[in-house]
């Protein structure tokens, strides 16, 4: 086997796995910001966290797609139309906000279903947009059956991930953090699987050139999505962990130290009623005797 071909194959595989890692990390951070919004009294109080959640979602989708395209064994240089890069990146971030805002307020079945369909559609449009932004020649022929399959896979996977995170084992319990990590992995892998279906349906191996390879090189975006974005996501992960610990400290401080047991309103009312009763009762008067 040609050593140079082996090296290219290994580097392409590393790029693909790097894209998967970025997608999983982005999904974990996104769900973390959504949970932060759940502790806020309203959308107005938690709008910063929702904006960050949307930006993380868009960054994860775009980074995974760029790294996956760069990992393809194509005989020509890749590049992207410079106008499409900010449009796709910011468009994915903004388009995800309605679903994320709904999840921060509601975690019922309807909310999970709506968010799953919405995020799957956004991901599919953005992934197709990145393929269009390359300007492949002789041109991409979109196959509807691949698009439909990608949408179904993404919707089912995102719905299952949201269920695990907000209703299943990730809601409460000692191992809820493990369930949340598993939900993030499932969400990311579902979107990556849909991404691969979209790319397979586009027939990239039949292309012979890229129109926009001189505008924004794929190597530049790969550096952004494979190095800078993961570093920022790691910082956000640490920030979320510190916020979670601070919230626990505040709850303990608010309810007293030493493991004070919280009482329900009925228990508090019963305790107040018992404390109002006299502690000692005078003995009953002896019955009157008649002479």
Strand count, sense and barrel status of the largest sheet are: 2 strands, antiparallel
Q: How many runs of DSSP E, i.e. beta strands?
A: 4
H/E element order = HHEHHHEHHEEHH
Radius of gyration: 27 Å
> Beta-strand level of the residues, as a percent range?
under 5%
Task: State mean pLDDT (0 to 100 scale).
Answer: 83
Q: Helical proportion?
A: over 70%
How many structural domains are formed by the residues? 1
List the total number of helices: 9
Strands of the widest sheet, in order across it, are 1-4
**Anisotropy-based shape:** elongated
Describe the structure.
The chain is mainly alpha-helical and 291 residues long. The protein has one domain (9-247). The protein contains 9 helices and 4 strands. The protein has a two-stranded antiparallel sheet. Strands 2-3 form a two-stranded antiparallel ribbon. The termini are far apart. Mean pLDDT is 83; it is low at 3-10 and 258-270.
Short descriptors:
two-stranded antiparallel ribbon; single chain; 71% helix; mainly alpha
Annotate the secondary structure layout.
Elements: H1 3-38, H2 47-71, E1 79-80, H3 84-95, H4 97-105, H5 109-134, E2 136-137, H6 144-166, H7 176-202, E3 209-210, E4 216-217, H8 218-254, H9 265-276
Helix pairs in contact: 1-2, 1-4, 1-7, 1-8, 2-3, 2-4, 2-5, 2-7, 2-8, 3-5, 4-5, 5-6, 5-7, 6-7
Summarize the structure.
This protein is an all-alpha fold and 291 residues long. It has nine helices and four strands, in the order H-H-E-H-H-H-E-H-H-E-E-H-H.
